[in-house]
TrEMBL record:
Entry EC number(s): 3.2.1.26
Lineage, opening ranks: Eukaryota, Viridiplantae, Streptophyta, Embryophyta, Tracheophyta
Subcellular location: Vacuole lumen
Catalytic activity entry: Hydrolysis of terminal non-reducing beta-D-fructofuranoside residues in beta-D-fructofuranosides
Domain (Glycosyl hydrolase family 32 C-terminal): residue spans on this chain: 333-521
Presence of the UniProt keyword Glycoprotein in the record: yes
Biological process terms in GO annotation: carbohydrate metabolic process
Protein name, UniProt field: beta-fructofuranosidase
Involved pathway(s): Glycan biosynthesis; sucrose metabolism
Ranges where the Glycosyl hydrolase family 32 N-terminal domain occurs: 12-330
Family the entry assigns: Belongs to the glycosyl hydrolase 32 family.
Gene Ontology molecular function: beta-fructofuranosidase activity
Length: 536
C-alpha cells in the first residue's frame, strides 16, 4: 500500500513485512553482527513467534536471512520466545531461549549453530533433550522467561538469570551450569523489588567506572559496577539501576535503594521495550538494542502489513560525571550515513517565537543542538516540579524550548523535543526536564499521542544539549550526551517527504534562547534480503 509506505523508516531495522518484537541473541561472529528478533511470519500482529535473523557488517546495513528458530517442537510449539546468546571461550556459541510448550508452560531451551565456521550462522540445532529448565517450585508456569547471556564465576561455573515474579514482587532467579544442559538453582535471587510485577527480558552486565570501553559480561573487579535492567510487564517500560554484584552468592545491591530497578531510572522514556545488550568484542563496546512498538491500532498495522522497529543500536557506558546513571549514544557507524551538513551559530529565538531552519528535506537527520538561556528579568523563577508540563503548549518562565521535528510549514503537525527548566536564580539550583510531546504529531485518528520525559542532570559546566535522530516516523532524542533518552513513534500525515521541516521554538515567557546547531542529512541504509533467500 503506497499510501502507507512513508511510515517506513530509512535507517532503522525492521523486517520487510509482518510483526516483530523483542531483539534476541545479538552477537558478533567472524566479521558479522547478528540480530535475531521475535517475528511472526504470518501476520502484522503478535503470534506464531519465531526467531527472525539478520546480519550486518556495521550495525546499520542489514541482510535478512532465513528464520533461525521455528516453533516446531512440543517444548516451543506455542512460540520461540526471547533469549540470549553466549560466546564460550573455546569459540562455541550457545543460545538459551524460552519456549512456550504445548501445555503453555514457559521452559528454557538450548540451541547452537550447526556450523560454527559459517559466518552467517544460517543453521541452528535444538538440543535433543530440551527443555533444559522448567519452572521451579513456587514459580508460576507463565512467569519464567527470557534467559540472559551467561557470565562465568570465580568457580568456573556459568551463571544465567531469568526474570519472574512472586505475587507482585518482580525478581530474577540465578542458575549455575557447567554445560548449559544441567542447571542448579541458587537459593538467593539476584535481586527482587516489591510491587514491580513480572520482570521480562532481564539484562545484567558490568560497566567500567573509570575506563571508556565496554566490558565482557563476565568481568568483575574493583572498578566495575553492574547494571540490572528489567522490562516491566505491567507498565511496558524498561527500568534499570546501577549497583554492586557480589560474586560469592550471586546477589546484586543497588547503589541507591531509592532508585532501585523499577522505581527509578528508565533506559528510555519513550516507546521502548524488551531491550538487550551484547558485548561487541570487535570494537570493545557494549551495544544496546531496543524494540520500538507501534502506537497505532492493530487494524492499521494489518492494513500496512508490518509492525514495529528496532532502535538504532546504542553504546552504553557508566556516566563518569554523575556516577549515578548510564549514558547511551548511537553507535558511531550511524555517522557513515551522513551527507551534507548545516551549521547554525547562536540563532536567537525570542520568547514565544518559532524560527525555521532552512536545511531542505528534514525526514532523515542527525541533529546536534546546544541552547543558552538569556533571562529577560534580573530574577526569574520557574514553577517547581512541573516536569514536562501538559506538553509544549504549556508555557512557563523557563520553558519549553527546543526543536520542532517532522513539522509542516503550517505547523499543523509537529513533534517538539524540548527542555523545561523549573527554577533558576543566581543562587538556587535548577531542575531540568527533557521531553517529547507527541500530542500534535499526527492528524491521524486512532493513534496514541503522549507527552514523554524525565528530569535530566545538567552539571554546572554543561550547556543544555540534545542530539536527535529523525527517520520519517521515528525520533530518537538524547539529552546531555545520552543521560536521558526518549524514543518517539509518530505518524505524520502532512509532514511527510518534502513537506517535513525543522524549526526552533521557544515557548518560555521570561527567556530568549540562543541555539547553535550542527545538522546532517542522513542517507538511507540498505536493509534487504540476502540474494539466495526467496522464502521471505
Ligand atoms: N516478549 C516475548 C517474551 C518476553 C516478551 C514473547 C517481552 O519472551 O517476555 O514474544 O516483550
Amino acid at each position: 500500500n503506497a499510501m502507507l509506505s512513508w511510515q517506513r523508516t530509512a535507517f532503522h531495522f525492521q523486517p520487510q513485512r509482518n510483526w516483530m518484537n523483542d531483539p534476541n541473541g545479538p552477537l558478533y561472529h567472524m566479521g558479522w553482527y547478528h540480530l535475531f528478533y521475535q517475528y511472526n511470519r504470518d501476520s502484522a500482529v503478535w503470534g506464531n513467534i519465531t526467531w527472525g535473523h539478520a546480519v550486518s557488517r556495521d550495525l546499520i546495513h542489514w541482510l535478512y536471512l532465513p528464520i533461525a528458530l521455528l516453533p516446531d517442537m512440543w517444548y516451543d510449539i506455542n512460540g520461540v520466545w526471547s533469549g540470549s546468546a553466549t560466546l564460550l571461550p573455546d569459540g562455541k556459541i550457545v543460545i538459551l531461549y524460552t519456549g512456550d510448550t504445548d501445555q503453555h508452560v514457559q521452559v528454557q531451551n538450548l540451541a547452537y549453530p550447526a556450523n560454527l565456521s559459517d559466518p552467517l550462522l544460517l543453521d541452528w540445532v535444538k538440543y535433543a533433550n530440551n527443555p533444559v529448565l522448567v519452572p521451579p517450585p513456587g514459580i508460576g508456569s507463565k512467569d519464567f522467561r527470557d534467559p540472559t547471556t551467561a557470565w562465568i564465576g570465580p568457580d568456573e561455573k556459568w551463571r544465567i538469570t531469568i526474570g519472574s515474579k512472586v505475587n507482585k514482587t518482580g525478581l530474577s532467579l540465578v542458575y549455575k551450569t557447567e554445560d548449559f544442559i544441567h542447571f542448579e538453582l541458587n537459593h538467593h535471587y539476584l535481586h527482587a523489588v516489591p510491587e514491580t510485577g513480572m520482570w521480562e527480558c532481564v539484562d545484567f552486565y558490568p560497566v567500567s567506572t573509570h575506563g571508556s570501553n565496554g566490558l565482557d559480561t563476565s568481568v568483575i573487579g574493583p572498578e566495575v559496577k553492574h547494571v540490572l535492567k528489567a522490562s516491566l510487564d505491567d507498565t511496558k517500560e524498561d527500568h534499570y539501576a546501577i549497583g554492586t554484584y557480589f560474586a560469592e552468592n550471586d546477589t546484586w545491591v543497588p547503589d541507591n535503594p531509592n532508585e532501585d530497578v523499577g522505581i527509578g531510572l528508565k533506559l528510555d522514556y519513550g516507546r521502548y521495550y524488551a531491550s538487550k545488550t551484547f558485548y561487541d568484542q570487535h570494537k570493545m563496546r557494549r551495544v544496546l538494542w531496543g524494540w520500538i512498538n507501534e502506537s497505532d491500532t492493530e487494524i492499521a498495522d494489518l492494513k500496512k502489513g508490518w509492525a514495529s522497529l528496532q532502535t538504532i543500536p546504542r553504546t552504553v557506558v557508566f556516566d563518569k560525571k554523575t556516577r549515578s546513571n548510564v549514558v547511551q549514544w548511537p553507535v558511531e557507524e550511524v555517522e557513515s550515513l551522513r551527507l551534507s551538513s548545516f551549521e547554525f551559530e547562536g540563532v536567537e529565538v525570542k520568547a514565544g517565537t518559532v524560527v525555521p531552519l532552512d536545511i531542505g528535506p528534514a525526514t532523515q537527520l542527525d541533529i546536534f543542538a546546544e541552547f543558552e538561556m538569556e533571562l529577560l528579568a534580573s530574577e526569574v523563577i520557574g514553577k517547581d516540579n512541573e516536569g514536562c508540563g501538559g506538553g509544549a503548549v504549556d508555557r512557563s518562565a523557563l520553558g519549553p524550548f527546543g526543536i520542532l521535528a517532522i513539522a509542516d510549514d503550517q505547523l499543523s503537525e509537529l513533534t517538539p523535543i524540548y527542555f523545561r527548566v523549573s527554577s533558576t536564580t543566581n543562587n538556587s539550583t535548577s531542575t531540568t526536564s527533557f521531553c517529547v510531546d507527541e500530542t500534535r504529531s499526527s492528524k491521524a485518528p486512532d493513534v496514541s499521542k503522549l507527552v514523554f520525559g524525565s528530569k535530566v542532570k545538567v552539571l554546572s559546566d554543561e550547556k543544555l544539549s540534545m542530539r536527535v535522530l529523525v527517520d520519517h516516523s521515528i525520533i530518537e532524542s538524547f539529552a546531555q550526551g545520552g543521560r536521558a533518552v526518549i524514543t518517539s513513534r509518530v505518524y505524520p500525515t502532512e509532514a511527510i517527504y518534502g513537506a517535513a521541516k525543522l524549526f526552533l521554538f521557544n515557548n518560555a515567557t521570561d527567556i530568549n534562547i540562543k541555539a547553535s546547531l550542527k545538522i546532517w542529512q542522513l542517507n538511507s541504509a540498505f536493509i534487504r534480503p540476502f540474494p539466495f533467500d526467496h522464502s521471505l
